[in-house]
Specification:
The complex is a heterotetramer of chains A (342), B (544), C (297) and D (347). Helix content of chain A is 74%, strand content 0%. In chain A, α5 crosses α9. By secondary structure, chain A is an all-alpha fold. Chain C has 297 residues and is mostly helical. Chain C starts with 14 loop residues before the first helix and ends with a helix. Chain D is α/β, with parallel strands linked by helices. Chain D has a domain of 164 residues: 3-Layer(aba) Sandwich (Rossmann fold), CATH 3.40.50. Helices cover 31% and strands 21% of the residues of chain D. Chain D has an 8-stranded mixed β-sheet, with helices on both faces. In chain D, strands 1, 2, 4, 5 and 6 form a 5-stranded antiparallel β-sheet that branches. In chain D, a hairpin with a 2-residue loop joins β5 and β6. Classes of the chains: A mainly alpha (342), B alpha+beta (544), C mainly alpha (297), D alpha/beta (347). The interface between A and C is large, with 52 and 53 residues.
């Protein structure tokens, strides 16, 4: 219970600091402060004064901060300078697309990465282990950008099996409700649903693959190293001496003790995974938050950057802290400081 | 214990099956082209959906030909003026009054955000023209209030009055005769809006939506626009001309030229805007792609900001012009696909002057001129290279880098500046540049469409005069050229203007490029429009 | 390695030599090490290695394929780009920028990270735990996000991107140093030093730091590989190095423009980045297993 | 018939650069219901021998032995499955470090129930089986002398004290009613009270359950109070073995004598404040073992012949491997029957 309270206040402190940082950002951005906050560039002087009234720029910093929090809570997140579109609406469309890619890549990394890592860790020094190690070292030292380009040249241009850009062929007019393409198709009333599914899958294969390979390689490396360490521990030898089979030992003792120390490291990989997804989005023009933020940079659309940064870092922060809390709660023996080095 | 062993093994083979099935899935490429729809890869976001408000051809592509109609139209093959919404027109003897007989039974778009109650009539024409002509018009200051094309031509001062004679007849009177007036009414910018929609929006207090959710009489209705992603159009079923165009039209916004080319190859786009020069050979090789080309009515130039020292001194401008080797630029950037530009007007126009004088490549003379104008040896200037591709300049960034090395030979350091396209044009209008690599696509066959918007004094506030160069003698010549209809007399005036431009050299004409259109092989009767822009209303797809 | 010696005491190699002997045993690690040294030499002596000036444009040799292609010339070993500039010298200068800036980033973040970590480790209680948790949470913000905010504030440029990546890498070192220092402080040899009247700083420098060097080096190799990938990714999005500066990520995105006519313009810079990161990772892995076997015996 | 019979066991360890003979020609017999002590300084290869017996050897170790048999079945080239069965039911091991031999992430109770072989639970619904398992676990705990079983059963290994965890390890070993219990230095680092508790427990188990115990230790006091027979190990070579009483009275091998001298409680006649007799020099490291008799350079009465490895000889079940044994006149020493490979001489 003490652990829960400690993590709760950590969460609150981090959220507060993030809010504070995103509040300060417009003051740091170049250009006129009012445009950076509101997104509307005042044409005339009296419009400027009216806007300052609305955004309480004339009052003290604390009022502004209070107003900022209040406007965040009741949903008017401001307007983007480039095309005056409502930021909340844009984010609701963009963020689920990124989450979708991250989720599928993470799924692949966990479903394939961890078992293969265990397998090669257990059956050490044989051809399977050697090939897995080479794949993993090559995998995580591949720059994601180049991997995507190679996939495009091979699968899209050479064999023309897979499409290059977007989440679905634009000719399928799928209204976006949840933002997750597969669910949207299911709920949309379009006629050729089967075609739409097939096409959405086609658009999904390349981006997910190019992101998943790097993360799976990292997962393999961590799990393999961890299981090899655990297998040499005394309690494993003691279990062997009690005559359990290799598989029993692995499932009863090896699995849990191998996973617990590396969970914080796997969580760290989620943040690198999100960076990779944001980069991949620009290449495959996947309408996610990464592409949206980078377009915002090119168009110097500061309100968008501010809100985008806030949303993404809040989600990542919340995710990492909850997973850290779960691992800490699950693992009784772990003292506070000890966690496996890479 | 046996149970545990089997789960481990079965887990493994389930994974194998999913992996294999996904790759198999990859092969069965869904055949999309049976749906009567078409995708066009455009190069950037349109500024707005009303071409009156900005001259960028991206906006014109996304709106002018698809959503709106004009009183008069250009015939793409011979460039002559043909009836559009106006079925016939009468010009008075003194050339001051024009009366237009309008077509009846033309339906406006019926969309989710507006359903028209009446068909097109004279009120719409009066509303559309008065909006940019009359400063006191309620809609004049909506969405910025600047109409670059019309401001640069000072058309609002030339038109005395626009009256509605009866439901289907409009009469426009001018102060002084203007032979290019009809041509200007046929350009992409003079579109006909819906007055009824404007009134409805004004009553609802949302006037700005007129240019963001457009309503027109054109072949396609506007459905949806997602910034940086796509624009969706739907065919206007009761369009007054017979159309065989696709049921659904999607503009897929792709900034990078190479990505557009890749999408063309994989079939995700049926037509591509501004293919890059280096890929033209690739398109001709592949049999599933075809390349349409036509000598374009455009010009790519290097404009100096004449309002800024030291570029206000003609000697400096002449020296810089001498310092660059145009032939190598043509080879490297246009890969020989363009003709060398001597003056503003390309050979396709009747006012073309083949004997126009031209500066060669003479770095030594350039250095002498720079010393005479006491420009220091390590003088630094910036060249603004436009980020998007255009027929008249397929790769401004590459051209800037080439010029940088030439200018370095004469002791001039260059740093290359580029922004996002909408911000780039906004900063150009404010004159923040030293020099800029840009160009101009003609909108009608009239040479005045080159001389007036590019270099006259009135064109400076509207932002089309990139050189910020104001010369009363030059303006006088252009005015006189407009007073007569006789081609020979107008050509003489334009030749004098060319001589003046050669001496002052506000901008260095570089090339007149071909107009290209890259499309999939199964797309038929798509025409290349010499004035740029793309039309889909007559395009069909052959069933394979 | 029976070494005959008259004297009784054994030949005990120093830990460093021991690690090198252990490291040398795996040939892959050695190959990675050689590749790393090659990149280091390229970074230091780029002007000497590059045959041409990377900015020299020669318009009559545009888009030449590499030498081994049918119409490639040996003068331009790896061909030329769309402006006729020699690819090989551009790659050499690109390696210099990418590898050099990554080394600089790692050096700075090690210096600051270890300093902060030691500070956090030494002063216990609420403050250090808050600092630690805070840094952990900062560590979980994606590096691209920090880079975007940095670029938005300070504008694009290699310097700003480097600052952003350093900021992203520092928490890793702080976390590791803090954990290491807290573990060591509980050990007795630190107690002995304290009894001798040594100040915390002196304890840190003389007794804890030497023990930590190997750990830092291993962590530094990981940070280096992350830095290289991030610098080139930001270069590709042209948020980091801008045009006059030559950088591998940037030349990758410039090569994209003429991808169909000249595919080698994408393949070569990408290959350079890949080999660079691979060599760093292989050396890192080799070091880690050498360190592990040394601690094992 | 010896329960456990090991002849000439040699263990090669490949330490990267060189391969090293950690154990050389180790002989060990363990009979029904006998407590044999395996004595030697730390680093003499005791734990290595234990690991060779139970077969938990990493792949860079290799074993060569004439015979390692358990009740006649040859353990060495037996299939992994058969050996596992034997390890499961007949042989049990208690390791040195109790806390680190328990899985930190699982409660102690669970681990104890896990080590109860399924044959002991009669069929029934799984909750009946669980209740039965719990009952057996509680009885095991009581048998090893832990009263409050509730508190310890669902505690985690890092929360229980060292001696309790050692008793739990013994309880786990007893769960499968083994015939042999190998206790690898289980009383190391404990205060004397808990040490004597554990020794008394082992002795009681030996008497009631006729459990053969191989007690590995270097604590002579504990050995004399419990063990029947004793084998002395030095640098991987068995130097002497035999009945505890005969060894104490008349140690034949100089190393055994030095070992016994070093424990003051054995010299009744030791004058106060006199320096303790110690063996000069240190144990050579595995890489640089002396040729022949490994005690060579440190042996008080070493001579030229000691360079060849002495052959193990026996005088009425008291085997020693030294050319010049103490307390034995020259002549008899030479003619004492050899414990040669095939003879199978019984101690």
């Amino acid at each position: 219970m003490k652990l829960f309270i400690r993590y709760l206040n950590l969460m609150v402190v981090t959220i507060f600091i993030l809010l504070l940082f995103s509040f300060i950002l417009p003051f740091l951005f170049p250009g006129d402060l009012l445009t950076n906050i509101s997104g509307i560039s005042p044409q005339s002087n009296e419009q400027r004064i009216a806007l300052e009234q609305v955004y309480k720029l004339d009052q003290s910093i604390f009022h502004q901060f209070a107003f900022y929090i209040e406007s965040l809570l009741d949903g008017n997140w401001g307007v983007s300078t480039s095309d005056q579109s409502n930021l909340l609406h844009e984010l609701l469309l963009a963020f689920p697309a990124t989450l979708e890619l991250v989720a599928y890549a993470l799924l692949i990394a966990v479903v394939i990465g961890i078992p293969v890592g265990f397998l090669s860790g257990l059956k050490n020094h044989n051809p399977l282990d050697f090939s897995v190690v080479t794949f993993s070292i090559v995998g995580y030292s591949f720059p994601v950008v180049w991997l995507a380009l190679i996939f495009i040249t091979i699968f899209c241009l050479q064999f023309q099996w897979l499409p290059i850009s977007g989440r679905i062929d634009l000719l399928f007019d799928v209204p976006t409700e949840t933002g997750f393409i597969l669910i949207d198709i299911a709920r949309s009333g379009i006629s050729n649903k089967a075609d739409a599914y097939l096409d959405a899958l086609h658009h999904l294969i390349l981006p997910t693959a190019s992101v998943a390979i790097v993360t799976t390689a990292l997962f393999i490396r961590f799990t393999r190293r961890s299981i090899m360490d655990v297998m040499e521990k005394d309690y494993i030898i003691a279990a062997k001496s009690r005559g359990f089979t290799q598989r029993q030992i692995f499932f009863k003792h090896g699995l849990k003790n191998a996973l617990l120390p590396i969970l914080p490291l796997l969580v760290l990989q989620i943040s690198t995974l999100i960076t990779n997804v944001m980069i991949i989005e620009t290449i495959f023009s996947w309408p996610g938050i990464g592409r949206w933020l980078i377009q915002a940079i090119y168009q110097q659309d500061y309100p968008a950057i501010r809100i985008g940064m806030l949303v993404v870092s809040l989600c990542v922060m919340a995710l990492t802290i909850t997973i850290e809390f779960i691992t800490r709660a699950m693992n009784p023996a772990r003292e506070r400081a000890e966690s496996a080095t890479v | 214990m046996a149970l545990r062993r089997s789960t481990f093994k079965s887990g493994l083979c389930v994974m194998m099956i999913t992996a294999i099935s996904t790759t198999l899935l990859g092969c069965a490429k869904p055949s999309l082209n049976n749906i009567n729809a078409m995708t066009y890869c455009s190069e950037s976001n349109p500024g707005s959906f009303n071409p009156q408000l900005d001259t960028s051809s991206t906006t014109a592509d996304a709106s002018a030909h698809q959503i709106y109609d004009r009183l008069l139209e250009f015939n793409p093959s011979n460039g002559l003026i043909e009836p559009g919404l106006a079925s016939s027109w009468l010009v008075s003897a003194d050339g001051l009054t024009y009366t237009f007989q309008l077509r009846s039974g033309v339906e406006f778009h019926n969309t989710s955000y507006f359903s028209p109650s009446r068909t097109f009539n004279a009120d719409d024409v009066v509303f559309s023209i008065d909006r940019w002509r009359d400063k006191s018009h309620p809609y004049h200051h909506v969405n910025g209030g600047s109409y670059p094309y019309f401001d640069s031509l000072r058309l609002d001062e030339r038109i005395k009055s626009v009256e509605r004679i009866n439901g289907y007849r409009v009469e426009i009177t001018l102060y002084i005769p203007d032979s290019s007036f009809l041509a200007n009414l046929a350009t992409d910018f003079s579109v006909i809006l819906s007055e009824e929609y404007a009134i409805e929006l004004m009553t609802n207090g949302r006037p700005a939506d007129l240019d963001r959710f457009p309503i027109g009489t054109g072949p396609y209705k506007f459905r949806e626009f997602r910034q940086n992603q796509h624009i969706r159009f739907e065919r206007h079923e009761d369009y007054f001309l017979p159309t065989t165009g696709p049921q659904q039209l999607v503009f897929d916004i792709t900034n990078k030229g190479s990505l557009r080319m890749a999408k063309l190859i994989t079939g995700e786009c049926d037509a591509v805007a501004f293919p890059s020069q280096s890929d033209l050979a690739v398109i001709q090789e592949r049999e599933e792609l075809t390349l349409l080309q036509k000598p374009g009515l455009n010009i790519g130039f290097w404009a100096f900001n004449a309002s800024k020292a030291p570029f206000d001194n003609p000697k400096v401008r002449r020296a810089l012009a001498l310092a660059i080797d145009k032939t190598s630029l043509l080879d490297a950037v246009y890969l020989g696909q363009a003709t060398r530009a001597k003056s503003l007007v390309p050979s396709a126009s009747w006012a073309y002057q083949s004997t126009a004088k031209e500066l060669g490549y003479n770095p030594v003379r350039a250095r002498e001129l720079l010393d005479e104008a006491d420009v220091p040896n390590d003088f630094t200037m910036n060249i603004w290279a436009m980020p998007v591709q255009r027929a008249y300049n397929p790769n401004a960034m590459k051209m800037a880098q080439l010029m940088k090395s030439y200018l370095a030979d004469v002791g001039v350091n260059v740093n290359i500046v580029s922004y996002d396209w909408n911000i780039f044009r906004e900063n150009l209008r404010l004159g923040m540049h030293d020099s800029v690599l840009i160009g101009w696509n003609a909108d009608n066959g009239d040479p005045d469409n080159f001389y007036r918007p590019l270099l006259t004094c009135e064109a400076i506030p509207s932002g089309t005069n990139r050189a910020m160069w104001c010369n009363p003698e030059y303006d006088e010549l252009i005015e006189q050229a407009l007073l007569t209809d006789d081609f020979a007399l107008r050509t003489a005036f334009y030749h004098q203007a060319n001589k003046l431009l050669f001496e002052q050299m506000p901008l260095v004409p570089i090339a007149h490029a071909f107009q290209y259109q890259a499309i999939r092989a199964d797309i038929e009767n798509m025409e290349v429009n010499p004035f740029g822009g793309i039309r889909f209303d007559s395009v069909t797809r052959t069933k394979k | 390695m029976q070494r005959f010696n008259l004297y009784q005491e054994e030949y005990h190699p120093s830990p460093l030599i021991n690690i090198w002997l252990e490291f040398r045993r795996s040939h892959i690690a050695l190959a990675g090490f050689v590749l790393l040294v090659v990149f280091l030499v390229i970074t230091l002596l780029a002007p000497l290695i590059a045959p041409f000036d990377p900015y020299l444009q020669n318009t009559n040799a545009i888009l030449l394929p590499p030498a081994w292609e049918p119409n490639g010339t040996v003068a331009h070993l790896l061909g030329t780009d769309s402006l006729g500039r020699d690819i090989f010298s551009r790659l050499v200068y690109g390696c210099r920028t990418t590898f050099g800036s990554s080394l600089l980033i790692v050096a700075i973040s090690v210096f600051i990270g270890v300093g902060l970590g030691a500070l956090a480790g030494v002063l216990s209680g609420l403050r250090s735990s808050v600092v630690n948790h805070l840094l952990d949470s900062i560590m979980s913000i994606p590096t691209l996000l920090i880079a975007i905010v940095m670029v938005a504030i300070l504008g694009t440029g290699l310097g700003n991107a480097m600052m952003a990546i350093t900021l992203a890498l520092i928490p890793q070192f702080v976390h590791q140093t803090r954990t290491f220092v807290r573990n060591e402080l509980q050990k007795d040899y630190v107690l002995l030093d304290r009894l001798d009247g040594a100040s915390s700083v002196r304890i840190f420098i003389h007794s804890i730091l030497p023990g930590m060097v190997e750990l830092i080096v291993v962590q530094a190799t990981i940070a280096l590989s992350i830095a290289i990938i991030d610098i080139s990714a930001l270069g590709f999005l042209n948020l980091a190095a801008q045009d006059p500066l030559i950088e591998l990520g940037l030349s990758l995105s410039q090569g994209l423009e003429v991808a169909y006519v000249a595919p080698w313009l994408i393949i070569l810079p990408g290959l350079c980045i890949f080999l660079m990161v691979l060599s760093v990772n292989v050396v890192g892995e080799g070091l880690r297993s050498a360190l592990r076997t040394r601690l094992h015996h | 018939m010896a329960l456990l019979d090991i002849k000439n066991l040699t263990l090669y360890i490949d330490t990267g650069s060189t391969t090293v003979k950690a154990l050389e020609k180790v002989n060990l017999q363990l009979n029904e219901g006998e407590i044999r002590a395996l004595v030697g300084e730390s680093g003499s290869g005791k734990s290595l021998a234990v690991r060779c017996i139970i077969g938990a050897i990493p792949d860079y170790w290799s074993i060569k032995a004439d015979r390692i048999t358990y009740q006649g079945q040859d353990l060495l080239n037996m299939s992994y499955e058969q050996r596992r069965q034997i390890m499961r039911r007949e042989i049990a091991v208690v390791f040195q470090e109790p806390t680190s031999s328990l899985d930190p992430s699982v409660t102690v109770g669970e681990q104890l129930e896990e080590s109860i072989p399924p044959e002991f639970i009669d069929k029934g619904w799984f909750w009946q089986q669980n209740r039965q398992r719990k009952k057996i676990a509680i009885s095991l705990i009581h048998r090893v002398g832990i009263k409050e079983h509730e508190q310890y059963l669902n505690a985690y290994p890092h929360e229980i004290p060292k001696d309790i965890s050692q008793k739990l390890m013994i309880a786990m070993a007893l769960a499968s009613e083994p015939k042999i219990l190998i206790a690898d230095d289980s009383t190391r680092g404990m205060e004397s009270t808990t040490k004597s508790q554990i020794l008394r427990l082992l002795d009681k188990l030996n008497k009631t359950k006729n459990l053969a115990i191989l007690f590995v230790s270097h604590d002579l006091l504990a050995i004399t109070s419990v063990a029947h027979t004793m084998t002395v190990l030095y640098c991987g070579q068995t130097v002497e073995s035999g009945k505890v009483k005969s060894l104490l009275r008349r140690p034949l091998h100089p190393y055994t004598k030095a070992l016994l001298d070093s424990a003051p409680s054995f010299q009744l006649s030791l004058p106060t404040k006199s320096p303790l007799a110690t063996l000069k020099g240190t144990i050579p490291t595995l890489q640089h073992l002396p040729a022949g008799c490994r005690l060579g350079p440190r042996c008080p009465n070493a001579r030229k012949e000691c360079v060849q490895t002495p052959v193990p000889r026996a005088i009425q079940e008291h085997t020693y491997s030294c050319h010049f044994p103490l307390h034995v006149p020259e002549g008899i020493a030479k003619r004492a029957p050899r414990v040669s490979k095939g003879l199978g001489a019984n101690d």
